[in-house]
Amino acid sequence: MTRVLHWMPRALSLMLAVVAGVALVAPRNTWFVFPVGAVWAATAVVLLAFIGGARTGNAMARAVARRPARAVALGTVLGGVLILAHLPLALIDFGWDARQVYWAVEKLADGRGLSQGGVEYFAKYPNNIPLLALMYGGVTIGSGLGLPVLAGMLAVQTAGMLVVLWCLGSTLVRLGRPGAVWPAQALATVLLGLNAQAAIPYSDLPTAALVALALWAVVRAWTGAGGAWWAVALAALVLAVSLKAYAVALALGALALVPALAQRRGRVRAGAVVLGVLATLVVGVVGVHAGAARFTELPEERRAQATEPYPVEHFLAMGTYDSQDPSPTRAYGAWNWEHASAMRHEPDPDVRREISRQKIGQQVGERGVVGNLEFLTKKVAWTWGDGTFAAHWEGDDRTQPGLLPGSWGQMQQWHIGSGEPYRQHVAPLVQGLWVAVLLITSVGLWRARAHPWVAACALTLLVLTAYLSIFETRARYLVALLPVLLLLTGLTAGQARAGKSRPAAAARESAHAGVRGLTGLRPQRTVGNTPRP
To answer: Per DSSP, what are the bridge partners of residue 332?
Structure first.
């Protein structure tokens, strides 16, 4: 198993390199075509800045190591200020599932109860009931502070982003990578907090916050902060999987830690821990869904009177769909209006299942073996190849104007999907940054020495990719587990530079002193650029 885990980072390295190459040379466009020259230029600038930034990186490492907690807090506060400033500029009249959740929260907050249409929606998609409970709880708290419904929901998202920034920075400090703290927080701020979708309240950002919290807590427990942190990590994981089922990839990725755990605790105890975690995860997710249903007045009996949930085959049918659109924005394994319409007008669950199975057989059978391999390859490149995470791809969001009046509305054109300045200038810069991050992470993974945390993060992202290769997908679906990629980038990015300088070694020694100051741990021996727990 150890040998297999050793190759996980290299497998992910190859995948990220291919995705980045495709994004530059033959992009699989999602919702509009990026200006190619701007993407290439932005990618080159980021790569050159990274290659030539060793001295700056060492200075940042020393600064963070001197006062780790203060440095992490500084990055969190600065990122939070930018995110708050960006939120109103990204406001649009959004639609799709996010609108359904918003309407439901609005009705619950007003004490009116859900409409029949709302009950039918959550009966079809019970996976969004925990999200409804979370947002309703946030709005209930926000109403006491005088916040309207949308502001309360966006406050939940903003709080989640602050959690991501803090946990990401603190985790990197714990793992002996102080020089990566501020760059990782900056990347999280740009890619997540300043994303055009940040002002659309949905499950992606809250799940990312819970994933970051789970990573932070488990690293604290692993590095000796106390057994209670295992419980925090498990609770965060349960909530994350309750919001987004594919967050279970984090639990499967954590299996890469089992060999190291077995060395420390023995095989029997390690096996018992794995079984206990899996059992708790299953029971916890079931319990969260049941509690959320009661809290939102959506018990199973009420939903069953409306309609049955969509079968898993429905999402497999979506996942095997190829739009075959001759335009540059061809979709691979995404939402299919024709199939969705057929399912919507068929109340019988058995017929729904049969419709989906026929669709799967038709779509897979028509392509053949080679065609399906080509489809899966393009689907992965399509899902991973968009640094905007298809922010306003859903529904009619891409055509929606901003909601602010006058000159503020003009400024919004730089922050929303329908704005020409956003499409021509902002989005390609973000795309170039994303491609550069993929390349830097790819090289770092290839050169990194074996380490359990690198293997765990790599396995998590490979499991996520496998899941999204089979089921319905979007670039947006990467958001929930983006903290894992950014942590992995922070752990391995130094490996992407040729050679190791004395200042870098000195910074790592200084970092260990800072880790001790923040955590109470003794300086730890390193493997590669990360400390061995």
So the answer is: 322
Closest CA to 476 of 389, 358, 362: 389
Provide the CA 170 distance to its chain's centre, in angstroms. 18
Distances (CA, A) of 206 to 4, 83, 92, 144, 296: 32, 15, 20, 21, 18
The sign one gets for the Cα dihedral 98, 209, 28, 25 is positive
Q: What is the pLDDT of residue 82?
A: 97
Alpha-helix residue ranges (DSSP H) falling in 448-499: 452-470, 482-492
Query: Residue 390, SS3?
Result: coil
324 or 361: which leads in pLDDT: 361
Mean local confidence (pLDDT), 40-44: 97
CB atoms within 10 A of CB 82: 16
Up-side HSE of residue 208: CA atoms within 13 Å toward CB?
34
At 459 the three-state DSSP class reads: helix
Phi (first) and psi of residue 72, to 5 degrees: -65, -40
* CA geometry: angle 229, 157, 461, nearest 5 deg: 60
Q: Which amino acid, 435?
A: V
The reported pLDDT for the residue numbered 316 is 94
- Other C-beta atoms closer than 10 Å to the C-beta of 354 total 14
Task: Name residue 322's beta-bridge partners.
Answer: 332
Half-sphere exposure of 51 (CA within 13 A, CB side): 10
Q: Which residue has the tokens 């998609």?
A: 125
- Rounded to an integer, the average pLDDT of 232-256 is 96
Q: At what angle do helices 54-66 and 181-188 cross, to 10 degrees?
A: 100
Q: Is the distance from CB of 319 to CB of 473 less than 8 angstroms?
A: yes
Q: Would you place residue 495 in the very low, low, confident or very high pLDDT band (cuts 50, 70, 90)?
A: low
pLDDT digits (tens, 9 = 90+) for 111-157: 888 989 999 999 999 999 999 999 999 999 999 999 999 999 999 99
More confident residue, 224 or 91: 91
The CB density around residue 326, as the number of other CB atoms within 10 Å, is 6
Pairing of strands 526-527, 530-531: antiparallel
pLDDT at position 499 is: 44
Q: What is the mean pLDDT of residues 33-58?
A: 92
Q: Which of 331, 401, 395, 319 is nearest to 98 (CA)?
A: 395
Sole residue written with tokens 């406001």: 91
